[in-house]
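Subgroup meeting minutes
Present: P.N., E.W., G.H.
Scribe: E.W.

1. P.N. recapped why we're keeping a running log of single-chain structure predictions: easier to compare across weeks, and new members can see raw inputs and outputs side by side.
2. G.H. added today's entry (333 aa).
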Amino acid sequence: RWIDVTLASRRNRNLAQGFQAVPEGSRLAPELDLRVPPAARSAPSRDDVEEPQEFERPKGKIYLYWGCGESVRPGQPRILDMASAAAADFGRFFVARRATGRGAHSAAGRPVWPNEQDARMVPEDASLVGSHAFRGEGVPGEFRFRIPPEQNLMPPVEIAQRRAGGATALEWKPIAQARAWFIAAMGAKSGGAGEEMVLWSSSEVPETGMGLIDYQTNPAVDRWLKEKVLLPPDRTRCEVPAGIFGEEGGAMLRMIAYGSELDLAHPPRPADPRKPWNPVWAVKLRVKSVASAMLGMDMGATSGERSRRPAANEAAAPEPAREAPAGGAIVPG
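Output recorded in log:
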């Protein structure tokens, strides 16, 4: 489990340190110490800059499969021959579904946690449910909010694998907070001629999944559920078709359970969009749970990935009435 926090305030563009009061259940109480990271090293001199290499067209083929099932479906795979493909062919092949907004990140004036001064790990039994508050120079004194149980740290994805008629059957435990699921696998095709890469995803429509193993907005998740790009929250099984990775079937499998985004602000946004709204602070909380494993390798039904970005929460506090709120971010997972 990981939590990433960022805080910023337009009242203080040079904010160097902040604090977040956290509940006892976090096992990190009474507070987190947010610091601006050390300045990045200077840009390389002209002597250090490498000369651009002459472009060499890539070779090999990429095969794209999609959908759960023991057998490859009719009309699959899509094949991209990189040696002869035009730019438009690449665009059609790599369908890019992605709605990942920028979350917790470090920058000048944006203290973060964890950091060199406070690098504590998040205990396995930690809970973020309860009262939280930010403070710091230029941060509004009323910057207080509560995290509800449904936005708590998500449990790890627990997935088991077994052979099923040559296919690989994936089964996982449900997660109450999951809004949807997505699975993708990538590997070299064994026994193939030359350089051949295989992509597979659990989507019912062609989808490489290159941008989906990350936070996505609630509207995007709901839309992709309707389009059958994502698996519904009550789904607990999927099969990777037999033979798509060759006889040996070696591939890296990644799976994500999407949690919901939570947006908080003070005062709350008026129901009537015509009314003026000047929030003093705002928070965005994002949660997810991600797992990775080698395809076909039974991991004892547990494979929680120790990602640096399992969830995100953003907070903001504007000073003048018409100024957008300043930002702070918490990333739990």
